[in-house]
Design a protein that fits this description.
- The complex is a heterodimer of chains A (267) and B (314).
- Chain A is mainly beta and 267 residues long.
- Chain A has 2 domains: 105 residues, Beta Barrel (Elongation Factor Tu (Ef-tu), domain 3); 146 residues, Rossmann fold (3-Layer(aba) Sandwich), CATH 3.40.50.
- In chain A, 12% of the residues lie in helices and 32% in strands.
- In chain A, a hairpin with a 2-residue loop joins strand 1 and strand 2.
- The longest helix of chain A has 11 residues.
- The N terminus of chain A is likely disordered.
- By secondary structure, chain B is an alpha/beta fold.
- In chain B, 27% of the residues lie in helices and 18% in strands.
- In chain B, the strands form 4 sheets. An 8-stranded parallel β-barrel of chain B has the order 3-4-7-8-9-10-15-16, surrounded by 6 helices. Chain B has a 4-stranded antiparallel β-sheet with strand order 5-6-14-11, with no helix packed on it.
- In chain B, strand 7, helix 3 and strand 8 form a beta-alpha-beta unit.
- Chain B starts with 9 loop residues before the first strand and ends in a 17-residue tail after the last helix.
- The mean pLDDT of chain B is 96.
- Classes of the chains: A mainly beta (267), B alpha/beta (314).
Amino acid sequence: MGLHQTEDNLQQFTATITNHREVAHNLVWVGLRAPAAALREARAGQFVFVRCGDPASFDPYLRRPFSLAAFDVDGESAALLVRVSGRGSRWLTERVEGEQLDMIGPLGNGYRLDERSRHLLAIVGGERQPHLAPLLPLLKSAAARELSVTLLIEAEREAYLPPASLLPPEVEYQTFFREAGDSAIAHIKPLLGWADQVVAAGPDDFLAALKKVAGAVYPRPDIQASVERPMACAVGVCLGCAVENERVGYLRACREGPVFDLWKMVL
Amino acid sequence: MPRPTINLRVELAPDNEHGLSLRNPVLVASGTFGYGTEYGRLMDVHRLGAIICKGTTVEERDGNLPPRTVETAAGMLNSIGLQNRGIATLLKDYAPKWARWSTPVIVNIAAESLHDYAELAYQVDTTPGIAGIEVNISCPNIDNGSLPFASNPQSAAAATRAVVEATSLPVIVKLSPNVGDIAAIAAAVEEAGADAISLINTVLGMAVDITTRQPTLGAKLGGLSGPAIKPIALRMVWQVAQAVSIPIIGIGGIASPADAIEFLMAGATAVQVGSATFTNPRAALDVLDGLSAWLHAEGIEDVHEIIGAALPPQ
């Protein structure tokens, strides 16, 4: 496996919150300034592992993984797109500008944009709220390379949806709402023939549904999917974030992932 | 930084022919530090007293169904299921690296039969680059009703004997807290020839997902670790220290220098830092530096002066 193994760039650093705004219900954009070059070699789909609590307390005990929603080539500025889902994410979204965060990264294997791709299809879903963060830097670089990009996104309802303003204007943004009985996956079939490459992000049941629908299409498109897993260590030692691969057994979302070849995943 | 005037060196296997002399009493626990290479970018592994590698079995193991971890109050549950690639791969891929390190590496072994314990000990014994063996006896004994070896004095002693007879290396036996009389088990392990005892392994627990109304972990039950279990671990170290004369390595929720000092005072000769490394990759080094600073501030020249300070007078 291991599309892009990057442990050599790994470091622990302190980032300063530069801006902080609620962009949708339950969804907070956290802009960061990192030490020079801390994230210079970051790639779309990678994540940072953030201490989300008082450093003098052991509760909450574990760090939280967050995908890099944005990062600049100078490696000094970055952003997280945080869904408030528990104690750690709530603590993080209650920080204000100027406060510092202890983080480790960049971690994991990101998405790989094929140089020959002209048409990129992105599909994102979630239990209530879609997990757009890992795809944002990829959509930005795809648009910069003048690819034709379509993003299908589903949320429980409109209030949970990340706003289109987070995306490059070139991206065609199609939204679907579960409360209306609709799903992004129900609309994907006609686009699978158009796309040279498909990228996805979401929880396992969403990815399983995607795999089922896309598996009925011939030829099967290349699909890279980012998984969601709680993590204890994020550096590959605890083996907690297991993702089953059909040939080699359990892989680690933190090291071999979080982006995997969807066709090799057992969901 | 450690002051040169303070002696931190500890000997964990005084009666073993090779001995297990560590430059300081701060180790990292099995399952929280991989094979010693993963944290190399985040902290200086060569300052540690010793590294205990991820538990290894004779054959490769796939591990348990996910989810495998869940956070709890000041701690976490895990049920990894001993996922590992087997002893032959471990010895081929890592032992040659370890042989060049100044930090000793202790291999943690786990088995479900006495035969496999002996097989693991023999294979480790004949490979350079390994300073000692830590024996996980918390696995089910498949030849005897699948109760864990650690659950009674007889089976704990049998597992210890199987390892000791197959190796000349120092043998540390890691005790489970999920027992009635920990002191009786420790005494039986000492009698069976262990050079040292480490304790505690994780405390058996569980979590329920109220959305699915089912156990959260794929394996249903898991082991609790982290600061939440420190008082249990400390109590057990204190009890075992009064029952045995071999060195004890304290484990369980150690995240700060003060935690480590408590364990030393309760009778441990050394400590292992476990899941605290996940939160703070430098946790073991912070414990070491803080211990040195505390000893210096107290005017103590040798760490042995505080070992067992909290034990009742004999």
